[in-house]
């Protein structure tokens, strides 16, 4: 018995020393970061954020969830929050931010925003996305453009083609590529990718006013219009331009098909440029970037980090440090050069950005003034999660079946009406 008491005393002394020791350790800003940036270019971009955070004394806890477009991550986030164990920082955007803020799950960054003058460096468009009831609840990291065609210049030259300015020219080029034995359109058969192609076609064939009436105002007549039938007619053509192995392919594997010249084109947001850059490719030489055919349109996507409610002081300090770093001028340049996007922060020098990024910067301003700038539906900017889900479901079903355009239009209008 005596021996046991002695052991107990020693153990107690040891444990209390450890606790005291721990209490004296300098508090360290800590952030568990949930994101889905796992491809080549994405990983380099998120590594830049991690290194910046650690260089400033932060402890980064990486929580990647593979799966482009973020649908896999969204499921993980919901289970983490519902189990009362949210990550400190999460890569979310658009109405998702508003929905989580409405649920009271997000911290308030307004004080930090005031100290750092975010109102003066963020365009009103992004402020609307990251504020809820006038308070900052997230911080934007970039502006991605969705409506791009990435082209292999050798394939283009091989068939004597030219970058398409209309959807008829796109189809003519695709037919030439197909006749030459080159896959016209590199594509991954995942709902968010099908919807990415769909929204560029909808903007191109219907225009910005049609796009907003259909997917933001959810106007029934617009959803059921002949124009929407034409959009699905073009999607049926697109289905004929992808290879037999497209189902389930990840978007970055489709990008590498264009890099290798196995395919002539890919329609994807400019995170695809991050893959070309990560592979050492040069725009204008190894690949071409041209907007998908439209009347001066621009489909905007913007990634943000929302800080979820945490109780631990180190986690709170980590959130403040992370939010502050994300909008720093130097970081905004470094991150976006890797990511393929352009800075969320206004006034960052364009000098280090390539021709694709500069075109995105210019077209963003021009389309904003012309009223032809729209928010992405496929990438969770313009529509609620329910409406986005309806679009993804119908577009994917149509793309993977012999559903007629008329049936798809009817199904889309019906699904969106139910999602409202
Ligand atoms: C988008 C996201 C981009 C990129 C892409 C592919 O939704 O905004 O940053 O990650 O998905 O995963």
UniProtKB/TrEMBL annotation:
Keywords: Signal, Transport. Transmembrane segments: none annotated. Residues 1-27 form the signal peptide. The keyword Zinc-finger does not apply. The keyword Signal applies. InterPro entries: Bact_solute-bd_prot1, SBP. Pfam families: SBP_bac_1. Part of a binding-protein-dependent transport system for a sugar. This is Probable sugar-binding periplasmic protein. It comes from Kiloniella antarctica.
